[in-house]
Structure formats: structure tokens, C-alpha cells
Amino acid sequence: MRIMSFNLLCGGRGNKDWPRRTPLAVRTVYNADPDTFGVQEAHIGWMNALRACLPAYDYVGVGREDGKEDGEFSAVFYKKEKYELLDSGSFWLSETPEQPGRGWDAACVRICSWAKLREKETGKEFVHLNTHLDHVGRIAMQKGAQLVAQRGGEIAGGNPAFFTGDFNVTPDSEPCKAVKDGGFADCRDAAEATDKGITFHAYDPEYPGSVIDYVFCRGDVRVKEFRVIRDRIDGELPSDHYPVYADVEF
């Protein structure tokens, strides 16, 4: 299976405006051909475009501002012919996770969406969680990471689980440590063949870049490869983040 994470860049300006980049993002997903993928910074326009242009996939997720369509989604897409959706949900990274709201010292409302899936051919089940941690609030980053790791373990039970997202922090950070303490491994470290290059480039050739996008896993999972996708489409990059994916076996 291939598990992917993709921060789409919500808006953008000029020749980086999101409608112009939509075909680039669609082709990036199509070329990578993930079994499931989590998106960050996806407003309803992005969601409608992805659903229309990638008919092999369905998704779970809601807008973070109202639990419906307002605000950015942290949705999970999955191949609908290959996988059966058993359960799904969303919760907010806050002290009141069952309702929309900003948590702790966060600058923005943050949400996690998840899907419990069964592979139709084998009957094997797994969970994919996806989120976007706050970019300002240190307490919110830490508490949010802990909450998703805890909830992920509870939702998965004895099944494998994958946790994708833009964490806005590097692998040696406390939020990443909290996820590992919660039973998840960074696929970047666990993979037999790996790529530890930057994932955020900011469309700025002078910017040194940073590693802030992740695929984590837990359970009886073998990580074959971890890759950062740097491919250009017609000479252009689809986002200010490089997507990442992990190829895994149960």
C-alpha cells in the first residue's frame, strides 16, 4: 500500500493561485497513485476539484471552522473500489475535541479526520488519520500531537494505523516525540529505503527548506520505502510543500 501526505497550499497568489495549480496537484496524485492520501490546507474549492478530477477516490473530512464546509479540510482520500469504509470521523485539536473550536494557545482552529478501511480483497483493516498542527502555539502543537496519537491508538485497536500531516515542526521536536511515545514510528526512519530531504520549500530558491511533513505508522507494518516527491508538472511545482509517501506492507 502507498500512504501519502500532501499540503496543497490553500490559496496562493498570481501564477501560484490555487485554481492554476489544481491540475498540477491532480496530476501529482494521479502519478503517485496512492491507496490513501491525506491533504492539508484544502478548502471546499480544493475538495470539489479533487473529487471531480480523481473519480477513483472518495474522502472523509469536514471543514475545520464549522464541521461542514467552512475552513480548511484535513481530509483522507481512499480508493473506493479497493477499500470499504468501515467508520470515519473528525475531532478538533482542543480541550473540547467533539466540537469546532481553537485549542490551547493555537493561532488557528485545527482538526483531525480519520477513516477506518477494509481492503476488499484480503479483509485486512487499518486506520488513516490526518491533521495539520498549529504553526504558532507550542502548547497546541504538543497537545494536538498527543491527542491524535492517543485517539489513533484507540480507534485502531489491534489494527495498523497511519498518521499523516503537516506538523510545522522538525523530526527532533517535542510534538514528533509525543507521537512516537504514543506508539507511532516515523516512516522516514523506519523505511528500508528512505529520503530525508526537505518537504517545505516555500517557492523560494533562497530558503534552506525544512522537514515538516510526515507519515507515521503503528502496528505490524513493514515500511519498504519513504519518498519526497519533487517532480515538476510541466516545469511547475504544485505546492509550496513537496508531497511525501510511504510504501508499506502488513
The name of the CATH architecture is 4-Layer Sandwich
Total helix count? Answer: 5
Number of domains: 1
Low-confidence stretches: none
CATH class label: Alpha Beta
Instruction: Outline the biggest β-sheet.
Output: 6 strands, mixed
- Compressed to H and E, one letter per element, the order equals EHEHEEEEEHEHEHEEE
> Which geometry do the CA atoms define?
globular
User: Beta-strand level of the residues, as a percent range?
Assistant: 25-35%
Within the CATH hierarchy, at the fold level, what is the topology?
Deoxyribonuclease I, Chain A
How much helix is in the residues?
A: 10-25%
Mean pLDDT: 97
| Radius of gyration from CA coordinates | 16 Å
CATH-defined superfamily? Endonuclease/exonuclease/phosphatase
Give the number of DSSP strands: 12
